[in-house]
Amino acid sequence: DVKVTQSSRYLVKRTGEKVFLECVQDMDHENMFWYRQDPGLGLRLIYFSYDVKMKEKGDIPEGYSVSREKKERFSLILESASTNQTSMYLCASSLRLGNYEQYFGPGTRLTVT
Amino acid sequence: AQSVTQLDSQVPVFEEAPVELRCNYSSSVSVYLFWYVQYPNQGLQLLLKYLSGSTLVESINGFEAEFNKSQTSFHLRKPSVHISDTAEYFCAVSKSSSNTGKLIFGQGTTLQVKP
Fold it and tell me: Could you give the CA distance from residue B112 to residue B86 in angstroms, rounded to a whole number?
């Protein structure tokens, strides 16, 4: 079974802090994605990566950056956390370009105070 | 641009009753369609997908969805729900010509199955 793990289930940070959210997949998938999930808005794509060191902006990249130094690991970085970034963050991976089934991690609920 | 609309934010239903969760999409190009389910405190899991072929697709736990191109819909149905079906359901769409696998998700529908 594909397994996507996220470093924390719950995280509380202060405004202005730099925040790292880590995601690891164990199935040699090429594509990895970061979403945020908010009530009434569904999932919105922040960034995705289709190869090591390659990244593309999604629909809401402002205030975020990403890093993919190794194939299995995809990090989401909040350079200076703000209260409007309080949300559930979901990581996903898929096998390769053109393969549409995405496998999701359990999510990290981030609260910025 | 593509978009997905899930017409109901919450659907309460009694156990063993039928249910339909509605999903409409807008796209000027050919699409692939998906339903994902999120059980409480878990990530999303793929429930079923339409890529090509038969317009009626089924999942292993009794759900089915029908792709209706003329009405741009992909409604999810189950003839008899169980308490364990209580979850949030997301409809998603992807351009069939896309090579990135990017999905556009709807707002989600919470299915509440009551005993």
Answer: 5
Q: CA A79 to CA A81: how far, in whole Å? A: 6
Q: How are beta strands A42-51 and A31-38 bridged, if at all?
A: antiparallel
For residue B19, the 8-state DSSP code is E
B contacts of A41 (beta carbons < 8 Å): 107
**CA distance linking residue A41 with residue A84, whole number of Å:** 14
Query: In angstroms, rounded to a whole number, what is the distance separating the alpha carbons of residues A77 and B33?
Result: 30
What confidence score (pLDDT) does residue B54 get? 86
Contact of A94 with chain B, judged by CB distance below 8 Å, is answered with yes
Weakly modelled stretches of chain A, pLDDT under 50: none
- C-alpha torsion angle, residues A63, B6, B47, B52 (rounded to 10): -100
- Alpha-carbon distance of A98 to A101, in angstroms, equals 9
Q: Token pair of A46, please?
A: 């922040």
Taking contacts as CB-CB distances below 8 angstroms, the residues of chain B near A58 are: 102
pLDDT digits (tens, 9 = 90+) for B13-44: 999 999 999 999 998 778 889 999 999 888 89
Interface test with A, best of B34, B102, B107 (most A CBs within 10 A): B102
From B10's Cα to the closest Cα of chain A, the distance in A is 10
In the structure, what pLDDT confidence band is assigned to residue B68 with cuts at 50, 70 and 90? very high
